[in-house]
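Appendix C. Worked example: Zinc transporter ZIP13
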Amino acid sequence: LQISGYLNLLANTIDNFTHGLAVAASFLVSRKVGFLTTVAILLHEIPHEVGDFAILLRAGFDRWSAAKMQLSTALGGILGACFAICAQSPKSAGETVAWILPFTSGGFLYIALVNVVPDLLEEKNPWNSLQQILLLCTGITVMVLLSLT
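Step 2, the predicted output written as structure tokens:
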């Protein structure tokens, strides 16, 4: 079981690296975009990190080791942010943002389409399906409203 924990840590480090890329590139666009991206990623990361912690516990890590390992994966986010900042052009941040934001957005869309949508399609209870669709529409509405302000 230990190998599944280490694979999860590797995946989490890569995920955090892309989050760092997204946050830094978003702040290169503007403070508002950076702040909104940071809040969105934090809201995503809270349940994600709790789930990863549980995976590490099941893989045989004790609580202290699992917490230290989870914290060490956060360094991936810092490295991603540093990479985005160091990759920016001396002329403008536009060149950096032109490839980083589509790259990270594509990764998030891929995860949603590969992991979430198949589960939604397998749902047998119509009420649960309706709730999930309503929550999805609510999320889209919130993003649109935040982009207008």
